[in-house]
Design brief:
single chain, Rossmann fold, six-stranded parallel sheet
Length: 232
């Protein structure tokens, strides 16, 4: 387990997909389910549909469009509410909270820390996932970067987020499964950074070395609770 100086951490900023929720749902939807259903709708081969979607994904990776359901619905000529969201719901049985998430969040709250969800997920995706996981019952503040018009890959997002949440870089921990996003947070000056080594339970651990990495939050619970936040 990575060492984190919890006595220096007051605020915890958390990604959602792959960090608090298992990433299996998203991987299955975007890489397999959506291309397959589009192939059926358009009467083309699944391989052709996957190749087309890969080109589309690559063209907007890391940009707000990559995460924007309005963009994908319009780009794929699908109505967001009546066609695209029903496709997302077809796999909703795969939505799940990581087993170690709730004990981790409970420990953060017990120790008096501010807990903020910061996700690039579109508000409709966020609402769907909250509906099926009740994750919002364990979070103080839920923020979709779509309200800022930029993603966590952008320095502008971190500036606007800091104005909203009023966190101090030196006393903030940010947890994410994306290395580019962790690097963006590092560039902004957030002192404490933690990667998730196993975002998708069906895939092997990634053995991350660029940042301290976690595989089971429950191993940190005692340290968190034993170092509560003391406020002046």
């Amino acid at each position: 387990m990575p060492f984190l100086p919890w006595n220096e951490i007051d605020t915890v900023l958390l990604d959602m997909d792959g960090t608090l929720l298992d990433l299996h749902y998203d991987n299955q939807f975007w890489l397999y389910h959506l291309p397959k259903r589009l192939a059926e709708i358009r009467g083309i081969s699944e391989a052709q549909s996957q190749a087309e979607m890969k080109k589309r994904y690559d063209s907007v990776f890391g940009q707000i469009q990559w995460y924007c359901l309005d963009y994908w619905a319009e780009s794929l000529s699908l109505d967001l509410d009546s066609e695209f969201m029903p496709l997302k719901r077809e796999l909703s049985h795969l939505l799940s909270i990581r087993e170690d998430t709730v004990p981790f969040l409970n420990a953060l709250h017990t120790s008096g820390r501010q807990v903020v969800l910061v996700t690039n997920a579109h508000p409709n995706s966020l609402a769907l996932k909250l509906e099926h996981t009740q994750l919002d019952e364990h979070i103080d503040n839920l923020i979709s970067t779509h309200e800022f018009g930029v993603t966590k890959e952008s320095q502008l997002l971190w500036q606007r987020l800091q104005e909203r949440v009023q966190f101090t870089n030196e006393r903030t921990l940010f947890v994410d499964d994306s290395l580019p996003i962790l690097n963006a947070a590092k560039t902004f000056g957030i002192k404490h950074l933690l990667a998730v080594d196993n975002p998708d339970r069906t895939l092997p651990d990634r053995n991350i070395t660029e940042f301290p990495a976690v595989r089971d939050y429950r191993l940190m619970v005692d340290d968190i609770v034993n170092n509560p936040v003391t406020r002046s």
